[in-house]
Amino acid sequence: MNNAESKLNVLLVDDEVEACQNLKTILLEYIDPSINILGIAHNTKEAEQLLEIHNPDAVFLDIEMPNENAFQFLERVAPVQFEVIFVTAYDEYAIKAFKLSAVDYILKPISINELANAVVKLREKLKYKSMYQSANSSEFGEVSKQINNRTKLNRIVLKGNNNVDIVAFSDIIYVEAFGGYSKVFFLKNNKLHDTLTSYAISEYEEMLPDTQFFRIHKSYLINHSHITKLNKDFSMNIVLWDNIQVPVSRRRYPLLVEYLKNLPEKNA
Fold this sequence. Notes:
Strands 2-1-3-4-5 form a 5-stranded parallel sheet, with helices on both faces. The chain has a 5-stranded antiparallel sheet with strand order 10-9-8-12-11. It contains 8 helices and 15 strands. Strand 8 (172-178) and strand 9 (181-188) form a beta hairpin. The chain folds into 2 domains: 9-148, Rossmann fold (3-Layer(aba) Sandwich); 155-261, CATH 2.40.50.1020. By secondary structure, it is α/β, with parallel strands linked by helices.
């Protein structure tokens, strides 16, 4: 894999010729003229041929294409060492893309700002992956690991207004709902941080493992490993890391107790 600080080497894959040209123009004229576009493919067969020739840092990938969609393609060519930025006209695949730890999910028509943010996130992730592979060169990128099912995904990418954080599940304390948004509270350098994201809490409930996270309230999803105390009085709350108190709904409290009782010994 190329160093994240060097020129980005990418492939563009979209069955629409005009869409590929539009994406190329935005990338080179409005975002970063140093991006090296190794090739353009209009179907997954062409994409596979380009992958055999090149070793891209990332692939900008449309989802709905003739004969084979992006997810089928990625599963077929796994394990992969490149990162993926989905560029699509369809929003219903966002959760699946997120579960595969895609760098970003861009909806057409393409927003220059959103694509610029995706490139920033890509550089951050490549930098992170380079550090990770230096420690263990046998590991693949997160997209590859999830598709190939060699290891379970154990971290999540959180995109805030001015930052991108890659957070281990174990460092997430809890998630709080804010309408259709969510605020994720997590540890970084043993200090509490939070990021407001555009995902609903129900989406985090689906994405995060139920062996580690439990929905205690319509507005709260908690990591059970950070529970320090359960209050059984009328307050009906739990105490998390650093004395953080979070309410538990009356309906969910007995379910929480049963959930904690049934945890495997190693997770308790």
